[in-house]
Amino acid sequence: xxxxxxxxxxxxxxxxxxxxxxxxxxxxxxxxxxxxxxxxxxxxxxxxxxxxxxxxxxxxxxxxxxxxxxxxxxxxxxxxxxxxxxxxxxxxxxxxxxxxxxxxxxxxxxxxxxxxxxxxxxxxxxxxxxxxxxxxxxxxxxxxxxxxxxxxxxxxxxxxx
Length: 161
Prior knowledge:
Organism: Eikenella corrodens CC92I
CATH architecture of the largest domain: 2-Layer Sandwich
Radius of gyration: 20 Å
Distance between the termini: 26 Å
Structural class: alpha+beta
GO molecular function, one term: sequence-specific DNA binding
Protein name: HTH asnC-type domain-containing protein
GO biological process, one term: regulation of DNA-templated transcription
Number of domains: 2
Keywords: DNA-binding, Transcription, Transcription regulation
Number of strands: 4
């Protein structure tokens, strides 16, 4: 979403509350933002319909589902449009890759991926990533320790007081 929507103080409170706990009931949410339940629900539905709130999800801890190897992979691709577009399309189908960013600078893409172990990582790199016709080079960095992992966007810059 690239369009900025005007949000008032109550909208920001709703967004902040839900970013910290997306499972709040409407009654709990309305209490936190000091609004009665009906208007609170109307505002919430508007935030959802405009795409400001793009969805809800359960955040699963990777190591509890045997995905203990977290990797950032920097990928350089062939500069021809059809191969570059083909790479972006392929990435969307790779379940190991949770996030992919097109970048400026020396690297074209940054992939954030999870694997069960080094064997599954190696198989992905050799059989999938490097086998893709658009990939020229790939360099990996393994996460040793996660220092911060948040899904909460900063919204303070939107407050008008």
